[in-house]
Structures are given as C-alpha cells and as structure tokens.
UniProtKB/TrEMBL annotation:
Residues 1-241 form the Reverse transcriptase domain. GO terms for biological process: defense response to virus. PROSITE patterns: RT_POL (PS50878). Keywords: Antiviral defense, Magnesium, Metal-binding, Nucleotidyltransferase, RNA-directed DNA polymerase, Transferase. Belongs to the bacterial reverse transcriptase family. InterPro entries: DNA/RNA_pol_sf, Reverse_transcriptase_msDNA, RT_dom. It comes from the Bacteria. SUPFAM superfamilies: DNA/RNA polymerases (SSF56672). This is Reverse transcriptase domain-containing protein. CDD domains: RT_Bac_retron_II. Pfam families: RVT_1.
Length: 351
C-alpha cells in the first residue's frame, strides 16, 4: 500500500537543552556555530551544470558539517517520507522516479526555478516549528544553522531533506486530488512529473497545471517554463521524465547521449594505451559515473563497458586517490584566492 503522508516519530523538542541531549553534542558547540555562522559556509562556488549554466554550491566548515550530519541522522532521517518523493532518499533515485510513469499516455513535467536558493529561512523555520513541532527558540536556531543569506545552501548535508519537506503542508493534498483524477504524481527534488495511463483532454491537462503550479506559487517559488512539457504518446514517439525517454514500458537514455558516453569511454581507453595518465586520472571518475548511469537503463550493453573500466581502474587506483585529495585542496585554494583578490581593499598611494 502506498504511503502518501509525511510522518515524524519525534516528540517536539522544546528547549536548547533538549536539542543538545537529542543530538548528543555539547551546548557550547551550538553557541559557537551561531556566533560564527556567517563564516562557516563557504560559497557560493559556481559549478557548471550539463546545460552550461552555473550551479551555486556551498562548502561547510568541518564543525558545522559535523553538526548538520547529526541533524540528519537524529531528525531528518527518522522521518517517514511519502512514496511520491524520490530525491536523496534511501533506495530511491531517478530510476525509481521515472519507473512510476511507465506506459503513460500523457506526462506533464514541471521544473522549479532555482529551488534551493528560493527556499528561505521562513520556509525552514516553518518546517521545524510546524512539522516537527519544535519550540520557536529551537526552530530559530536550527533554521539559522541550515540557511545562509536567507536561502538553503545547495551542497550542505541537510539541503535535500529540507527540499523534500518544504511542501509538507500541501503536497499530500495535491497528490490526492490528482490521484482522484487518475494521475500519478512524483517529485525528484525540484522536478515534478504528473502522468496518466489513459488519454486526457486539454481541460484535464489544464487542471493538472492549475493544481501543481498553484502549489508551487503558493510558496513563492517560480516555474522554469522552458522545461515544462506535455507530450501525448504514440507508437513512434517517446515521453520524457528527468531527461530519460519512456517508450511504453521501456526506459532509455536518448540515443545521442548514449553515443557520447560510449565515445568518452573509448577516448579514456585511447589515452590509457598511450600512457597519458594525467588525462586518464583526471577524467576517470567522470566517465565511470556516466557508465554507471548508462547501466541503470541499458544493463546488458553496460556490462562490457564496466569490465573495460575495471581494467583501467586496477592500474590507476593509487594515482586516483592521490589526485582526488590534491584536487579538492586545489579547488578550495583557487576559490579562496579568487575571493581574496576580489575583496582585497584597494591600495592608495599618498601624494
């Protein structure tokens, strides 16, 4: 039976003392984090997405990161999340999300614009205060420590859990309304998909948009309209969810993308044969991630690709570990130097 509810087994935490006890941390640590919170998040660091646009990522100082991970394990991970959510949850991913829409005749896709940066302190405070039923004092402290510049920092340990909970007040009602009209609703973080196994009229589709967009805008979020699509299915056309094609009961990565993944693996092998270890080590994890992604949807053909990757990995494993450590240090150093130069006060000469 489907679970369509957000449920928390926690008794409402009403004081900082109770919070400290529940998280099993020192009270002085929370005081330190609150007093220094503006310097404990580092960013935004622009990371390019596949479409070429920058994604602002934040790094957490180790003491803050430890606290946020405690928050995850003791608070966010004990929540029972409804089955229509598939982002950043155990045993759920893009594959489980897309699988809910197999054999669909109609699919509507909605992408929330700049989702994490649009989730504010007020949204997070509301989650702690009215979903978890924590006191206003505790809710303020937790909202303060999980936001920066009045937004949820993408890349922080808690960001995906907060994104999953942000619609807790209305999402269940939206799902139920759509189910009553024989639609299936799923959400993968900021991507909402609604499908039907039967053909629908234009009025039915307009009603789906009214319900879903109404929920999005009620939270002061915006719709990224260029990703919004409605596609009727037929024998020669595929539907798309999370950039994966659905042809009746089969899931498939688009042909051009499959070719690009195979080409990337071939290129890696060529450089490996030429003993160009600098290129191989630098690009190995990227190619490996793409092949693993490929294997989700095309396991038979991906099996041979994984064996080819394994041969390379055996040879470069020590080099890869060393490269990963140095790359992280280098990226952080470059970012800090760039910010230092940008914010460095101008030197004035005395005349």
């Amino acid at each position: 039976m489907l679970n369509l509810q957000f449920k928390s087994p926690l008794a409402g935490i009403q004081s900082i003392e109770s919070l400290v006890k529940h998280l099993n941390i020192n009270c002085n640590k929370i005081t330190y984090l609150l007093e220094n919170i503006n310097s404990l998040y580092e960013g935004p660091i622009p990371i390019l997405k596949s479409n070429g646009k920058p994604r602002p990522i934040y790094l957490c100082e180790p003491r803050l990161k430890y606290f946020l991970k405690r928050l995850n394990s003791k608070i966010f991970k004990v929540v029972s999340y409804p089955d229509f959510l598939h982002g950043a949850l155990p045993n759920r991913d893009t594959y489980t999300n897309i699988s809910q829409h197999l054999n669909a005749e109609v699919i509507c896709n909605f992408d929330i614009q700049s989702f994490f940066t649009a989730i504010t302190y007020e949204h997070v405070f509301d989650i702690f205060k009215n979903f978890f039923h924590f006191s206003a004092e505790v809710s303020h402290v937790l909202a303060k420590l999980t936001t920066v510049n009045n937004q949820v920092p993408q890349g922080s340990p808690c960001s995906s859990y907060i994104a999953n909970l942000v619609f807790y007040r209305s999402e269940v009602n939206v799902v139920q309304k759509l189910r009553n009209k024989n639609f299936v609703y799923t959400r993968f973080v900021d991507d909402i998909s609604v499908s039907s196994l039967s053909k629908k009229t234009k009025e039915d589709i307009n009603e789906v948009h009214r319900i879903v967009v109404g929920m999005i805008r009620a939270y002061q979020f915006s719709l990224q309209s260029e990703k919004r699509s409605i596609a009727p299915s037929c024998k020669t056309r595929s539907l798309t969810v999370n950039k994966i094609n659905i042809v009746k009961s089969k899931l498939s990565i688009p042909k051009k993308k499959r070719a690009n993944i195979r080409a990337a693996l071939y290129q890696l092998e060529q450089h490996f044969q030429e003993k160009d270890m600098k290129f191989v080590v630098k690009n190995f994890e990227s190619v490996q991630g793409r092949v693993l992604y490929y294997s989700k949807y095309h396991p038979k053909s991906a099996d041979k690709m994984m064996k080819r990757l394994k041969k390379i990995h055996i040879e470069i494993s020590p080099l890869l570990k060393h490269y990963k450590r140095n790359r992280l240090k280098s990226d952080i150093r470059k970012y800090r130097n760039k910010n230092y130069i940008r914010n460095k006060p101008a030197i004035t000469q005395k005349v």
